[in-house]
Amino acid sequence: MKPAVLVTKRVFPEAIELLRRHAEVEYIDSDDGLPPEELLRRSCGKQGIVSQLTDKLTAERLAQFQGVRFIAHVGVGYDNIDVAAATRCGIMVTNTPDVLTDTTADLAFALLLAAARRIVEADHFLRSGQWRRWSIDLLAGHDVHHKTLGIFGMGRIGQAVARRARGFSMRVLYNDTRRAPEAIERELELEFVEKDRLLAESDFVSLHVPLTESTRHLIGAAELAKMKPSAIIVNTSRGPVIDEPALAEALSKGVIAGAGLDVFEEEPKVHPVLLELKNVALAPHIGSASIDTRRKMCMLAAENAVAALEGRRPPNLVNPEVLS
Ligand code: GLV
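A: This is the predicted complex of the input protein with glyoxylic acid.
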């Protein structure tokens, strides 16, 4: 008898085809997400679960899963899963890194450009029939080229953003808990600086850290106050990395000039003030959402699941300690 796997939400069909060659698949072909009791009920008798970021896999819920040996998560960030608890329960957790790096960096840059050059505002202006004549400062925004970009988190996506910044002749500062390898610093002409210097000197600040207890509210009122009044902040990492009410207040009071946001503290809710502000470009958590990349993410999650089903070490295991 084939082992059983639960897929909690809709994925690209190729991933289901692959899984079906190796397992009995209970596929929830819907975008709604399973309520916790339903997830628990359906996990019964499953060897693995293919999860997405709306599945909140807390310590309490993981402890109730019986017989589940792996969670193959579709996404690079896995802050929705209590990995330490999974390890204690003997559950392998995998993610989908690399395949989404460039796509997410593209979106960070798109939001940076959109906020700097007021693209969303310009689109509204034109569509609503307000464009009557050309004028010297009509929708004049901020230059991007030759400005300073400060990056928090110089992992894969941070590096890909820095690579794009070079094409815009930008100076790139960064801060992280660890220095990037020397070869990367040299290749991308990166300057490692303390947090306060990054905030004070950057024209653009882009966030590329994972959400952990130490990065929650990395940017709050105090940090925003240290930024230039002309600065623009971009967040494609996780919403809670920014204190959203503090950001809404800073943007409405002109403490900083603008923002490009793809992620929010309580998705899908967005702070009402952000929805009103013109100097903010907003997107509904679509950082990795190109068709090719989302397909690759689904396939990689399925490949991780197949490896686990076959007793091999999954290629993207995030808690290798579970095997020792
Ligand atoms: C999406 O946010 C991801 O972590 O892949």
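The first strand starts at residue 4 and ends at 7. The mean pLDDT is 98.
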